[in-house]
Amino acid sequence: MYKLLLSSLIFLLFSACLYAQRKKDARPNIIYIMADDLGYGDLGCYGQKTLLTPNIDKMAKEGVTFTQFYAGSTVCAPSRCALMTGMHMGHSYIRGNKELPLREEDMTLGKLMKQKGYATGMFGKWGLGLEGNSGSPEKQGWDRFLGYLHHRAAHRFNVDHLWEVKNGKLNKFPMDTTTNTYPFIFNAATKFITEHQNEPFFLYLPVTIPHAEMRAPTEESLRPFIKDSRSIFTEKPFVNVSYASYRPQEMPNAAFAAMMWQLDQDVGKLLQLLKDLNLDTNTYVFFTSDNGPHQEGGREVEFFDSNGSLKGFKRDLYEGGIRVPMIAWAPGKIKAGTTCEEPFANWDILPTLSELTDQKVPEDIDGISFYDVLHNQKAQQKHSYLYWEFFERGFDQALRAGDWKIVKRSSSGGKTELYNLKDDIGEQRDVSSRYPEKVKSLEKFMESARVDSKEFTVKK
To answer: Please, which contacts does 146-153 make with residues 24 or more away whose CB atoms are closer than 8 Å?
Structure first.
């Protein structure tokens, strides 16, 4: 009897100490989920009608939905660089999809969270460095990584290896080529949460869907969109095997729907896991996309209205190429069912996480914190402008200041287009001829918004 009482007392003391330690260590966990090529109109909470995304929609109802949030760029690598470093395309080191690694001196989200004592994990697509160079994940603040290093490698969901960071070293991780990597990587991410439930963690989840290739992650995900072995949608089979190594796909619309279904299911599972582990009241979860919807691998953007009412797609600097969903969820910290209509961009994440983790915001970055917005207050600071540039089609630029936006495209000879997004969200009416003074003032902003980088210079 005495031994039983003593054991019970020790257990209670241990539990009390553990609770006190958790209470003392109030650093919030942070999870940043970034879909790949998911458009502004692909979610039910942003107007999607054909596909259902109930779990992500529920996340929006329980948190804050940003209606004017922007990616760092209109393609993969530079958008991820903006996210990691807090720098927009006028100052970012990486401004295109050419193979260019982050530098040793670059501050990144991984390094930021490491210096505050967080366990850091990344699962999915990196795209900012390869084995042996300065951008390799273990050199940029990541304790754990499982996924793809090169963005083009992520064009295939059945590969013979991924890459893994473990114990400070990067090595190949052998894969069975019959296994779709997306669910495998996502399951590894949820395991990371369980393993680090008793310490503050930062999980960066740059998932590889719904980027092409169009391939259903699981048989279960495809089932709702198949009847009598045929797609429930009108299909135009994809047969081009020369571009970007995408494999043929008989039912690309069904495959895309399956990818979206699986992503939504997994977001629901992740949020439920946090609740089951009693982590939900001390965890911030963000959901967004790296750029607008692609038109590759057989995906029919118009069929699903993936860009909603916006003009343009991936590789465009119109709204459809750069405006993306953003949802932030943190029960008890973020007021449920709120909306933010203030323009922000993914280069604002680094200063926001700095403030969330009680760190000094790094100097000489372009991002500003939206900490106050998350906590149902007015923005303490607003952007005077947002800026983008893109080099794959010559040299394209875009700048937004307030409701006004200018776009310059090489294909139109560099002519400045002007749009009032408040009245014309679809950028259908170029009003540059009506407001020449507004054009001049925004062009001055544009001139001051950028400097040439070593790898990205403008020929004059």
So the answer is: 146/173, 146/185, 146/188, 147/122, 147/123, 147/181, 147/185, 147/206, 147/208, 148/124, 148/181, 148/208, 150/99, 151/76, 151/77, 151/97, 151/125, 151/127, 152/244, 152/245
Are 287 and 329 members of one domain?
Answer: yes
- Domain boundary (382, 406, 437) is at 382
The confidence score (pLDDT) of residue 5 equals 47
Among the three residues 382, 401, 429, which one is the final residue of a domain in this structure?
Answer: 382
pLDDT band at residue 243 using 50, 70 and 90 as cut-offs:
low
Question: 421: domain range?
Answer: 389-448
Q: How many Å apart are CA 430 and CA 418, to the nearest integer? A: 5
Q: Say what the pLDDT of residue 10 is.
A: 46
Are 297 and 440 in the same domain? no
CATH number for the domain including 396?
3.30.1120.10
User: Residues 377, 427: one domain?
Assistant: no
β-partners of residue 168 are: none
CB-based burial, 82-115: b 16+ in 10 Å, e otherwise: bbbbbbbbbbbbbbbbebbbbeeebbbbbbbbbe
> How does DSSP assign 80-114, residue by residue?
HHHHHHS--TTT-S--SSSS-PPPTT---HHHHHH
Residue-wise pLDDT for 248-266, tens only, equals 999 999 999 999 999 999 9
Over residues 153-199, the pLDDT tens digits come to: 999 999 999 999 999 999 999 999 999 999 999 999 999 999 999 99
pLDDT tens profile 114-152: 999 999 999 999 999 999 999 999 999 999 999 999 999
Gap between the Cα atoms of 162 and 181, Å rounded: 8
Asked whether 217 and 157 are in contact (CB, 8 A), the reply is yes
Give the model's confidence band at 245: pLDDT under 50 very low, under 70 low, under 90 confident, else very high. Answer: confident
- Residue 41, CB-side half-sphere exposure with 13 Å CA sphere: 23
Structure tokens of 137? Answer: 């994940």
DSSP string, 366-434: S----HHHHTTS--SS--S-EEEEE-TTS-EEEEEETTEEEEE-GGGTTPEEEEETTT-TT-----TTT
CA angle 377-60-331, nearest 5°?
Answer: 65
> Whole-angstrom Cα distance, residue 153 to residue 158?
10
Contact 318, 299 (CB under 8 A): no
pLDDT of residue 92: 97
Residue 262: which of 204, 222, 303, 304 has the closest Cα?
A: 222
Beta-carbon contacts of 8 under 8 Å, excluding residues fewer than 6 positions away, are: none
Answer whether residue 455 is part of any domain. Answer: no
